[in-house]
Amino acid sequence: MLFGRHFRLKTDHQPLLRIFGSKKGIPVYTAYRLQRFALNLLLYDFDIECVPTHKFGDANRIVKHVKPDEDYIIANINLEEDLRAVAQSTQADPLLRKVYHHIQHGWPQSEHSESDIQRFQARQESLSVVDGFIMFAERLVIPSLHRKRCLEQLHCGHPGMQRMKALARSYVYWPSLDADIVNFVKACQHCAAVARSPPHSSPVPWPKQTAPWQRVVVDYAGPIEGEYYLIAVESFSKWPEIIQTSRITSAATISILGGLFARLGMPVILVSDNGTQFTRAEFADFCASNGVEHLTTAPFHLQSNSQAERFVDTFKRAVTKIREGRGSIQQALDIFLLT
Fold first, then answer.
1. pTM as predicted
2. How far apart are CA 149 and CA 140, in angstroms?
3. Span 149-170, pLDDT tens digits
4. Cα–Cα distance for residue pair 168/229, rounded to 1 Å
5. Which residue in 23, 42, 55, 243 has the most C-beta neighbors within 10 A?
């Protein structure tokens, strides 16, 4: 009946003029169902105008005579209580009170408006006033008084940061919504208790040495047939020294390293793990008296002493394979060092 004819569309909802009557296209923040409705109306030739509600009698009478069922009325009563509280808080909120005024009476020039007002002004095409509260498209603009309660309700099931943002973007809005959600989730003790471990940072390599015997890494391997082996690797040349011992006490370690350093010289830095033989006071006195800087790696982090750990692993695997049918452990050790 209307196709091919020019007609006038009347509404008492001012934002619909921008959605259905704009010559610049449909606003980006328009709800999808309104976008589809606007696309359908593009097939028709019409003008749209806003009529004050008190002059919109025919449509209002029709709406008032529609009687919802009982279940809807109960739900509507609870919803109206919440909306009434939001509407009252909107008028009490200094910022939203100004936004409410600008939506109805026009926005100031951008360069003269406050920064908080500008954040709403940039989205003015999607802002509207309904029964005393502010809507951003189909989302309710929440006053600052109710934002904490709103975040608590959104986080009731601990859905996680991204899921919580998606839920919020379907129902509510305020300018700092995303940042408030991030801070709220980070402050949740229950979420933190079961959160995944943070990603590992990139490993920081040891500084490269410019001369031999500046840094020596040491570690123990074994026991192999009741014997231990102190392994020392020089970082610059990768030269290994392997000394067999039946004891791995601090005194035995000092004795072994004393003989090694007497033959090859004192290193500048000695690196070891946190074994008790390396952390006792007598070992610290040995290093200090010989001018050696002793560094221990991070506990339970074998990668920090990776050069020694790798050589220990290589040594144990190689000796086990060489010994198959080759005789004693000493012969296997000699073959390993020779090759």
1. 0.44
2. 14
3. 889 888 888 888 888 898 888 8
4. 62
5. 243
